[in-house]
Amino acid sequence: MKKDMTCIVCPIGCQMTIEEKADGTYEVTGNTCKRGPKYAINEMTNPTRVIPTTVVIKNAMLPRLPVKTAEPIPKGQIFDAMAVINQVVVEAPVKTGDVVIKDLLGLGIDVVATRTMDKC
Amino acid sequence: MIYDVVILGGGPAGLAAAVEAKNDGAEQVLILERDRELGGILNQCIHNGFGLHTFNEELTGPEYAERYIQKVIDLNIPYMLDTMVLDMHDNGDLKSIHVINEENGYMIIETKAVVLTMGCRERTSGAIGIPGYRPSGVFTAGTAQRFINMEGYMPGKEVVILGSGDIGLIMARRMTLEGAHVQAVCELMPYSNGLVRNIVQCLDDYDIPLKLSHTITFIHGKDRLEGVTVAKVDEKLKVIPGTEEYIPCDTLLLSVGLIPENEITRNAGVVMDNRTNGAIVGELRQTSMPGVFACGNVVHVHDLVDFVSEEAVLAGKGAAKYIKGDLDTEITFTTTNGDGIGYVVPQQVAMKNVEEKVTFYMRVRQVFQDKVVNAYIGDQLIATKKEKKLLPAEMVNFKISKDVLAQYPAGEIRFVVEEAK
Questions:
Q1: Measured between CB atoms, does A46 come within 8 Å of chain B?
Q2: What interface predicted TM-score (ipTM) does this complex get?
Q3: Which of A6, B141, B211, B378 has its C-alpha lying 20 to 30 A from A35's C-alpha?
Q4: What InterPro entries does the record point to (chain A) (predicted)?
Q5: Which of 2.40.320.10, 3.50.50.60, 3.30.70.1520, 3.65.10.10 is the CATH number of B124-256?
Q6: Quick check: B271 pLDDT over 80?
Q7: Quick one: closest CA in A to B42, which residue?
Q8: Mutate which of B192, B389, B390, B391 to test chain A, going by most A C-beta atoms within 10 A?
């Protein structure tokens, strides 16, 4: 498999091409430093992202509480994660770091609050 | 009561400036904030990527804000919320700040020093004058961001975004995650105005097309937006006839630039720079009005909050020095932007206030590959910064040590983009 991608390790944004060889190794071209191939291989084999979003909160100053996955989750499961997160309703007060969803999608990763919201 | 330092705005710049001023010995510090809470724009920037330079970790906007809010609380720095600053007057040694809020009505607050940290606001559809109707469904990207992330409203389902500034890119992803379909991001220029990281993680990740050299030529729909006409532009940014394409949509987000919010600054008579639309400032962010400092997006629009915090530390330091009578006013150097550079901040340097180095912030006018930024005093090359790629979207951060600057008695420091030797 062959894939084109833009490197985001630094602002240069090298246009790289990564190709999987028959022996299972990867060949990366277009990079200008050694951090490029590392990023490209990771993007090819196990791309992950932190998902920052919101959940409904009751009895707070605002109706939405910002949350994030405490660790990056596999890119392919982002929309499954959103479907679960959007079902959640929490009650104020909440503190930054409080767990809102434990073990999201069985990934062993929690969804945590990213701000403190008092009851009001 | 006479304050030592009053800070106009409780966003990232105001918070960091307050903390620094207090730590540097200003006793009576007060933050004035017009919103119902501290934190400013960071409260709606729920995405991650903040704090890589300041805290060496990747935080969301609210988390970044909370770290500074906690410092303000720990230092017992008072703040007034829901409080609007109307005007600022220079009465020599004291400044008077005219303020209004629901609890106290109209007040005049007296202070020895002021730090201006009002931030910036978005350019609106009125500012760019797109032909067509004015239906509902046209939002600035930041307004949509606040609706979704704080108020819990979804602005629409079929989305086109005009302008590839960072907020537009972030909102393309945010709307997609919440179930909307983002059809395209149109950018007038042949390059994006957003960070590379955001193009990859907000557009490429979700297969959202970025249409460079494209603009919107007509807004359709009388009550609610029904669609937009998109067309390609040539090198002179003129629409190429025959390239028009109709895209049906119910929502148009605009991410077409930010304007420093300087009504108070201008009314007070502070000398402005028409390149940045902010005040002319010195190395400690002192303005032309003695005792008045400015930092953050009200001085020039930053792309990373980390650099706002860095700049706010300078202003907080400057304000504390000023009230102690330690701020030197003799300007040693002025700065100017030569070929390829749009602006330079600070515009002035008083060498006696410089500790180890001066960091000059600047933006290039266009994309450059394998060039250098050179700093000259007269014909003398004093410093060089090599960059593989220079983008208008990424602020250049050019540090020159005190030792280098001290070799020159005075003059103008000129920054230019040149061929690498």
A1: no
A2: 0.91
A3: B211
A4: CPE0013-like_sf, DUF1667
A5: 3.50.50.60
A6: yes
A7: A115
A8: B389
Chain B residues inside the 8 Å CB shell of A32: 388
- Chain segment A90-109, per-residue pLDDT in tens: 999 999 999 999 999 999 99
- Do A103 and A58 have their domain in common? yes
Residues of B in contact with A116 (CB under 8 A): 66
- pLDDT band per the 50, 70, 90 thresholds, residue B241: very high
Q: Do A54 and B148 touch (CB under 8 A)?
A: yes
- Asked if A75 and A104 sit in the same domain, the reply is yes
Contact B196 A6 (CB under 8 A): yes
pLDDT at position A1? 81
CATH code of the domain in which A88 resides: 3.10.530.10
Shortest Cα–Cα distance, A95 to chain B (Å): 11
| Chosen from A9, A15, A54, A116 to mutate, greatest number of chain B CBs within 10 A | A54
Domain ranges of chain B: 1-120+258-327, 124-256, 329-421
Separation between Cα atoms, residue B262 and residue B278, nearest integer Å: 7
Domain count within chain A: 2
Of A6, A51, A78, the CB nearest to B204: A6
Q: Closest residue of B to A9, CA-based?
A: B197
- A94 assigned to some structural domain: yes
- Cα of A25 to nearest chain B Cα, Å: 24
From B63, B178, B197, residue closest to A114, measured CB to CB = B63
Inter-chain contact B177–A82, Cβ cutoff 8 Å?
A: yes
Helix crossing, B166-177 with A78-85: angle to 10°? 70
Residue appearing with tokens 């499954």: A80
Q: Domain range for residue A96?
A: 52-113
Q: Is residue B29 a contact partner of residue B22, using CB atoms and an 8 Å limit?
A: yes
**Do A107 and A81 fall within a single domain?**
yes
| Calpha distance A92→B61 (Å, rounded) | 20
Q: Do residues A41 and A57 share a domain? A: no
pLDDT in tens, A33-79: 888 999 999 999 999 999 999 999 999 999 999 999 999 999 999 99
Q: Which residue of A has its CA nearest to B66?
A: A115
Task: State the DSSP H helix or E strand holding residue B86, giving kind and residue range, or none if neither.
Answer: strand B83-91
User: Into which CATH architecture does domain B1-120+258-327 fall?
Assistant: 3-Layer(bba) Sandwich (3.50)
Phi, psi (5° rounding) for residue B260?
-55, 140
Whether B1-120+258-327 and B124-256 share one fold: the answer is yes
H or E element in which residue B364 lies: strand B357-364
CA gap B135, B264 in Å, rounded: 32
Q: What is the DSSP string of B293-344?
A: EE-GGGTS--S-HHHHHHHHHHHHHHHHHHHTT-------EEEEE-TTEEEE
The dihedral formed by the CA atoms of B304, B306, B311 and B313, expressed in degrees to the nearest 10: 160
Shared domain for A58 and A99, answered yes or no, is yes
- Put simply, the answer to whether B205 touches A49 (Cβ < 8 Å) is yes
CB < 8 Å to B150, chain A:
62, 64
Q: Residue A5: its chain B contacts at CB < 8 A?
A: 200, 204
pTM assigned to the model: 0.93
